[in-house]
Amino acid sequence: MNDQHSNLLSRELTCKDVHDFLMSYIEGEVTPTERRAFDEHLSGCSSCVRYLDQYKRTVSLGRQAICSSDEPATTQVPTGLLDAIRAARKRP
To answer: How far apart are CA 56 and CA 73, in angstroms?
Structure first.
């Protein structure tokens, strides 16, 4: 977190606070004090723990999707996919 968010530590974190700074938390870009505040909130909030788990999974899948691969892209386009895309693009 940066200086503009340092006031978060002057009070108990809310679920919104946790959600707003989740990526910084996951990437280790929070101070030890900030991490303790996050961990304290997570220890008592099963909703945020579930959200954190799903967020981590989403980030991981996103990274996997953009990783370069030595394998060529598939040349087989599923039947009807191009027609469906063209039809969708024509809609207002």
So the answer is: 26
Measure the CA–CA gap between 56 and 90, rounded to whole angstroms. 36
3-30 burial by CB neighbour count: b if 16+ within 10 A, else e? eeeeebeeeebeeebbeebbebbeeeeb
The answer, yes or no, to whether residue 6 has pLDDT greater than 70, is no
Q: Among 9, 20, 92, 82, which Cα is nearest to 55's?
A: 20
- The three-class DSSP label of residue 60 is helix
Is 12 within 8 Å of 41 (Cβ atoms)?
yes
**Run of H or E residues at 48:** helix 46-66
**Alpha-carbon torsion, ordered 62, 66, 67, 69, to 10 deg:** 130
Q: What is the CA radius of gyration of the chain?
A: 20
Structure tokens at 83: 């027609």
pLDDT digits (tens, 9 = 90+) for 9-33: 667 889 998 888 888 988 899 999 8
